[in-house]
Amino acid sequence: MDWNDTPTQTAFRQEVREFIQQRLPNRYRPNADGVPAKGIWEEDRALGTDEEKRASADWVAALRERHWIAPAWPKEYGGAGLTPMEQFLFKLEMTEAEVPSGLPMAVGMLGPTLMVHGTEEQRQEHLPKILSGEVVWAQGYSEPGAGSDLASLTTRATRDGDEYVVNGQKIWTSYAHVADWLFVLVRTDPDAVKHRGISFLLMPRDTPGLSVRPLVNAAFEHHLNETFFDDVRVPVRNRVGEENRGWYVAMTLLDHERSNVTTAVQTKRTINRLIEYANGKGKEQSRIDRLSSIRTAIADRFIEAEVMFNFSLRIISMQVRGLIPNYEASVSKLFGSELTQSLANTGVRAFGLYGQVWDPEHPRAPLNAEHVYSYVNSIPRTIAAGSSEIQRGIIATRGLGLPRG
């Protein structure tokens, strides 16, 4: 593993930093204490004020100029064609600047899937609109009874001539309320082995019979939704790949940057921000001077943040050498999600009862209530994107060579 940048990598870092400094709208810049901005690109684009919509449009236009909307996509499809290390450095610098990423479903999941399995007509219709930022996509995968065991999904699509008739429900559909289209896994053969009876469909959100109901999380925020399908008719031409082969289509991802550097950098920034504030503006509120247990916990989180960053460096170093991370990515995900929870807990405890002030605008709220919000929002971190139990199973079987239980 190499911790040092080459001259070329140093130059690329500087290019990204200058780009952010010159082109990032104020809407998405951290405040004076370094707390990330609250602006969310997808929501600004669809629901924001005129000023917020203008900021979202300006940012996507700036990224599009450099082909940085889709840094990992091949150049022939309009992407930047960055190497794994360039992708890593790009994501690192964007995260350091607390820049909103946007379009993760379209760029990281749907686009690569269409490149491999889509028809030429589907690629021509959808890829340019992803790159222009004019269409936002949501993912219809999880169901109330099919989360970690996604292949158990029951949303049904029945063939009727040149259309499928879809009935069922999805849950935890991120940003479906501001999306224009959804890509959805449906069961087209209920009698087949569960992985082999699934198809992959594309559908506009305004399709008759498709409805979206908000799910407000424990932090009183809305980005998740339930999605219902009541005799939704989808043209067969909107199926990606073969019928009943949708599971394998859905597993296609070309963005191999799996280092989890976003979590690593965010964690380091959060712990450094906590230390600086607790010893500066928030010194009277903090309990650092009074409780050795708090100091020890902060020191532990600082060390763990460095460990997390080195996990990321290990993975990207493997990829640069042409190796494919497997259980290493699960180690990084498991460690990172649990560190996010413990860091939020430490941040709340560091300020005693002040740490529980919920209003970010309250003058007594440390760091605009960052840690109490993070504490509540971190609850599902060990479930989403592969639960900790799933990650431990991968580490045990693929990493340690233990038998499946």
Give the name of the CATH architecture of the largest domain.
Up-down Bundle
Measured between the Cα atoms of the first and last residue, the distance is 34 Å
Q: What number is the mean pLDDT? A: 92
Question: How many DSSP E strands?
Answer: 8
The run of helices and strands is: HHHHHHEEEEEEEEHHHHHH
Flag low-confidence runs.
none
Helical residues, percent: 40-55%
Q: What is the CATH class name of the largest domain?
A: Mainly Alpha
Q: How are strands sequenced across the largest beta sheet?
A: 1-4-5-8
Predict the CATH topology of the largest domain.
Butyryl-CoA Dehydrogenase, subunit A, domain 3
Number of domains: 3
Structural write-up:
The chain has 405 residues and is α+β, with helices and mostly antiparallel strands. It has three domains: 7-102, Butyryl-Coa Dehydrogenase, subunit A, domain 1 (Orthogonal Bundle); 137-246, Beta Barrel (Butyryl-CoA Dehydrogenase, subunit A, domain 2); 261-399, Up-down Bundle (Butyryl-CoA Dehydrogenase, subunit A, domain 3), CATH 1.20.140.10. The protein has twelve helices and eight strands. The protein has helices at 7-23, 41-47, 50-65, 84-96, 104-117, 120-132, 246-250, 261-278, 292-320, 327-349, 370-377, 388-399, and strands spanning 137-140, 156-160, 163-170, 181-187, 198-204, 210-216, 222-235, 239-240. Strand 2 and strand 3 form a beta hairpin. Helix 1 (7-23) packs across helix 4 (84-96), helix 2 (41-47) crosses helix 3 and helix 10 (327-349) runs antiparallel to helix 12. The longest helix is centred in the last third of the chain and has 29 residues, at 292-320. The mean pLDDT is 92.
